Fold this sequence. Notes:
The chain has about 200 residues and is of the alpha+beta class. The chain is about 20% helix and about 40% strand.
Amino acid sequence: LSLKFGDVGNLKGLVIRFLLTTSYYQLSVQNWFSLHKLQLLYNHSIQAMFNATRIYAPASYSYHCEHVSSLQRYDALLIPSSANDLSKLWEVTFTDFQIQGFNIQEGHFAYAKDCATFCSPAILMGLVMSLILLLVLAYALHMLIHLKSLDRHYECKASSAYFAQMKDNDMGDEKEPLRSSGNESDELRNQQFYKIYI
């Protein structure tokens, strides 16, 4: 599959060639295509060649990725084929890259297999934070249930204290002297008791 730039300024002689292969895998019971190599040609001579890694999809699907690049910051899906050639001098980056080499119908891409994996750093971080929040919630619920049972336990086992009721109007003459057999003693009036749990 070749991408030609035509009459676009200085890029007139530049051609990007995608070498695609197809293979049948018995485990998935279907054909898969993969991008094997990427070649950069200028005026019909190969300037750079990159081996493609992890760029594959079922033959009836297309492949889509936000960035396909030779740069490490974009996960470097394109690797120079040799350390000695001029490929290391080239930096190739495709943005919003989508390709389908086989089973193209009506000039439209089929359903895309995306390069985003289920174990990307953002997804893993979200899963870890969700797990931490669930653990905190479970611990908080456990403590609330445990506190309820402690309240019931102490209500049954609580000791009681008795206090006499005091009236304001009787404060002046609260005590009344009693005389019996020559001894003086005081008697408290209106002794009513209340039970208070502590």
